[in-house]
Amino acid sequence: MASVKHKHKHSQKAWVVSVDMGYGHQRAAFPLRHLAYKKNIISANNYPGVPERDRRVWRESQRFYEFISRFKRVPVIGKPAWELYDSLQEIPKFYPKRDLSKMSLQVKQIYRLIEKRQWGKHLIDKLSKDPKPLITTFFIPAFMAEHFDYPGEIYCLATDTDINRAWAPKEPASSRIQYFAPNHRVVERLKLYGVAADKIFLTGFPLPLDNIGSDTMEILKGDIAQRLVNLDPDRLHWQRYKGLVKRYLGIKKLPNKSNHPLTVTFAVGGAGAQRDIGADIIKSLKNQIRLKKIRLVLVAGIHNNVAKFFSDAAVAAGLREELGRGIKIIFGSTKDQYFKKFDEALRTTDVLWTKPSELCFYAALGIPVIIAPPIGSQEHFNRRWLRTIGAGVTQENPKHADEWLLDWIHSGWFAEAAMEGFIEAPKMGTFNIENIINHRYDMVTEPRMLVQY
To answer: Which of 145, 196, 274, 433 to pair with 15, CA 20 to 30 A apart?
Structure first.
């Protein structure tokens, strides 16, 4: 698929910095690669030349997170252990509004490592030799940049619909870190944490340009029209809301037939969690897959063992011949390869089934979301946001997906959720971030981004 050519050919280039931990922070950076110097996204914990002492600190925290994510499944003791860990990262209740600027234990520990062990100094010294705007999708590199006096502008992109105190620096009121907020709640949350209002930009979450097109969204609107054909087979939604669909998509009528079969995409998390749900989906939908009424896409990410698990589950369900046809498994040897394949698959995805990670923002592409159980405090907030804007619904028993999934399609609910996501969720984050680092503040704003919950 050809990449979208962006209209600002002479945009300022930036250092785009992420972390190689799970998928969320790198997925947020991937749509910004056209802004990155030499299209190179820097991994703060895995860049060429990273000192072993720095790598060790990153590695220890990553290993513990992946261990505790998997340990959660251990009977009896797994769940309490996870809950204790998660409580340390818990997002406090928003109301009543109050001063939440006091440093958390997590922030104290981060700054102790930065100050006492010079954690991150090598990276910041390296980038300071050519001080471009620095955009990071994780808070720790932003803290490092400020502490070690990075001479350029520092921008930090939040990657969930609500965030905990760890995202705000040691002294938030006087910090020069500027924030890209994906929604209004994050704007208000950062203020409660003490960040100055003039350091916060309501941009929206960055989404892939190849799925949107230009700022007129010609690719996205065309894909949604094709999707609605599959999601509204009895035209119940069209009869009720055709005026709204025509206005937002700029069409006179829906296509007579979609350019793809009804497609459900199931995505596991970065640690490979919840893959068992994928096996249940295969078993439940096997007759629909055999009859070519449903195509199932299973997203294994970069985990070859998960890809094999899905393949084995398909064979066990008697669907060996459907592998590569009615069942497609997405796997990449690198995260960039995986993200590219995933973004392309989304163009012909009708329903996305996933835990409420950063992928909740992809509802803005007009894809209804079936919400798998959340993992971690922030994902509970992401689930609430999806429900509030009407773009997602909590999964029923995966073993009976052949019943409730088709009921929701024939009722027109998924078609409604597709349009709700497109209308209500922010879509222009990638464009807005580019404008801001170039000091163009004519952002592509979306009034619906102000929706509270």
So the answer is: 196
**Residue 427 and residue 423: Cα distance in Å, rounded?**
9
Main-chain phi, psi angles of 154, to 5 degrees: -120, 120
311-368 pLDDT per residue, tens: 999 999 999 999 999 999 999 999 999 999 999 999 999 999 999 999 999 999 999 9
Confidence band for 5, pLDDT divided at 50, 70 and 90: very low
Look at residue 7 and tell me whether its pLDDT is greater than 50.
yes
Q: Do domains 14-208+429-450 and 218-424 have the same CATH topology?
A: yes
> How many Cβ atoms sit within 10 Å of the Cβ of residue 377?
18
Beta bridge partners of 179: 156, 200
* Cα gap 35→437, rounded to integer Å: 9
What length is written for the chain?
A: 453
Looking at residue 239, the DSSP 8-state letter turns out to be H
CA distance linking residue 158 with residue 99, whole number of Å: 20
The pTM of the full predicted model, rounded to 2 decimals, is 0.91
Using DSSP's 3-state secondary structure scheme, residue 154 falls into strand
What is the Cα Rg of the chain in Å?
22
What is the DSSP code (8-state) at residue 444?
-
Q: Please name the amino acid found at residue 260.
A: H
- In CATH, what number does 218-424 get? 3.40.50.2000
Tell me which CATH code domain 14-208+429-450 carries. 3.40.50
At 78 the pLDDT is 60
CA-based nearest residue to 41, from 50, 49, 30: 30
Sign of CA dihedral 432, 435, 439, 441: negative
CA distance 138 to 396: 33
Q: Structural domain boundaries of the chain?
A: 14-208+429-450, 218-424
| Token pair for 122 | 């090598």
Question: What tokens does 214 get?
Answer: 């230009």
Which residues, listed in sequence order, are joined to residue 17 by a DSSP beta bridge?
42, 136
Percent of the chain surpassing pLDDT 70: 89
Q: Is residue 84 pLDDT above 70, yes or no?
A: no
